[in-house]
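Q: Could you write out the predicted structure for this multi-component system? I'm mainly interested in how the pieces pack against one another.
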Amino acid sequence: MLDATSSYKPTDRAPPPVDESDERQDRRIVPETTRRADRLPGNRYGNRPTMKDVAARAGVGLKTVSRVVNGEPGVTPDTERRVQEAIEALGFRRNDSARVLRKGRTASIGLVLEDLADPFYGPLSRAVEEVARAHGALLINGSSAEDPEREQELALALCARRVDGLVVIPAGDDHRYLEPEIRAGVATVFVDRPAGRIDADVVLSDNYGGARDGVAHLLAHGHRRIGFIGDMPRIHTAAERLRGYRAAMEDAGITVDERWMSLGATNPQRVRRAAEEMLSGTDPVTAIFAGNNRVTVTVIRVLAEHSRPVALVGFDDIELADLLQPGVTVVAQDAAALGRTAAERLFRQLEGTLLAPERIELPTRLITRGSGELPPAV
Amino acid sequence: MLDATSSYKPTDRAPPPVDESDERQDRRIVPETTRRADRLPGNRYGNRPTMKDVAARAGVGLKTVSRVVNGEPGVTPDTERRVQEAIEALGFRRNDSARVLRKGRTASIGLVLEDLADPFYGPLSRAVEEVARAHGALLINGSSAEDPEREQELALALCARRVDGLVVIPAGDDHRYLEPEIRAGVATVFVDRPAGRIDADVVLSDNYGGARDGVAHLLAHGHRRIGFIGDMPRIHTAAERLRGYRAAMEDAGITVDERWMSLGATNPQRVRRAAEEMLSGTDPVTAIFAGNNRVTVTVIRVLAEHSRPVALVGFDDIELADLLQPGVTVVAQDAAALGRTAAERLFRQLEGTLLAPERIELPTRLITRGSGELPPAV
DNA sequence: CGCGCATCTGACAACGTTGTCCAGGCTCTA
DNA sequence: TAGAGCCTGGACAACGTTGTCAGATGCGCG
């Protein structure tokens, strides 16, 4: 559960009931500063009018207001007009919490991703949002910051909100905690990385194939000693890309030197050191395959300072890659397509057809811009 | 799997519990496709157990379960253990919708922004999320796509969800539609651009000052004919930056030629044309001030194809700006700080102190990298 | 041994909405 | 003009939770 660390308490105690006249007094005496939260009279949502208030004002029954609000048939134009006027006058807005409680559907879906600020996840998130919007649903999202515990906390908080469905970019590798939720009817789709230890829909890029193609591209340009810098192999995408690298090298009949590989390069400093190491010494690498966009950016910086030209292919496209000297050759994945595909799958689940869990793999695309076509330099 | 000893009270109007064997039957007979939504037995959230179910299984009262779930005092360890076991066994998760309805606080805040996929809003959104998280609240967000109508629709949908507060990056310029909501107690803070026609908190960058500094920087390097390419002036930030441009030029005693200015450059094609126009003809500009990150990127592309070196200063920082040739000089604003400041202000409102609406302006920072220091070339 | 008190527990109502169902008034037809 | 049927409107319960309050239990002390 999420814990409040400040005095803002979502779990507010109920204000003591105060009768109308006392309340008038309060209005005059209580300083402005205490008013916003504890405004009286009426209900706990400030002094928000309810359907009952609207009904009273319009001189109709409660259900008639509900009918008007929901555009249900069976209300004469005259009655409808009176209700509309009352709604207008009171500034009524339906309380969706109550509606949700009654109807059982929240018309919202949750998205658990790694980091909203990462340029890869922005478009993905946006794509999910668009699909949700097309289905009349809102998107609630949160970042796991690559922390499995936080991922779980977030996902379960979303389930407690009774989101209709969940799109998860996994940080952890054990998602059995979602089993009761899925059984209870929460549609669930994993994106970018597969779910751990449960059977669920998953949409991912062809990380293996993309990496293999990227490395093969370097091999085709004459490179033999090719470095690989990637994330921790416990992350599925990183492991797959590494596998692709190994496969391409093997296909070319090259035995990979352990010193050519750097795994778990999670921050710029480590990437920098890794790159510098494999570029120095005897038999330095003549090309580098960068395992993700953050690695690519750092490697570009290192190569910019390096005297000898070194070929580079990066996984994930980066903005302005074409404007650098040389342009950066990348294996691009389509973040928006990942998000869109996952969200669409989610809503297909929600439409009632219980589909067998499926693994959808989207192709990657090699974009040649120059850095990957440099010949080996000694 | 209801406990055999659990008995439903006579007062209980819930549908009669289906016993184990019947339930098994259902599972076998009902086709998979109808199951997810209409699963039996039980309530509308699939077959999600409620506190009542937990209470029955644990052989305690409803309120005792509530107490355990909320960590309230006054439950003997033994009772608590029994309840915990029942919760575990049933996979119970509290329904926050009902809780919200009862308590009046949703512990969630809404964020209406322009486009989640824009690299400027990712960090902003993330910062808001972090603050929300620190206060135990979830973030619901949506993109307005710069459409005022969609902004309103989104904001009001969030209000219907009874978010506790709203952070809005305005697309429109009339926010009176939020008045009833604010009166009803929805904390509201505007970011990046001020609210229109209502009095509310707003957090923004010093667009005017930043642009003036940026243009002054070009002037200091000897430029006289400086172009400005920006967004539609109906967007506050665009108008302010334009004002900064004009002020700097005026300070330098330069009369701005209308042909140096391009407003409403909303897509790359128009930016490109605008840039090409002001770079050609007699008396072309020798420097360009780009009004936002998207414009900057396009202008960089145009300049890359241009024979004569042209100085450039852009508003908003862009990734890899330092790696281009030359590095791109920018007026950087701190998106994360904007988001953080706004969210913190929001929660201060929620803590009960009703603060007078305030306008908070964050400074910008000029980052020199080369492109802004090029001398005028004829 | 009985009384009072503290501690623990549970019945009940309420939150604001929607689904069900019935009443009353209307129109239409025989 | 009466009866059937339709249309509109409203009373009521229910959704799952929490606040209130009173009842039950056990214990210590007079």
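A: Regarding packing and overall arrangement: Residues 13-14, 43-45, 50-52, 62-63, 66, 69-70, 94-103 of chain B lie near DNA strand D (CB under 10 Å from a C1').
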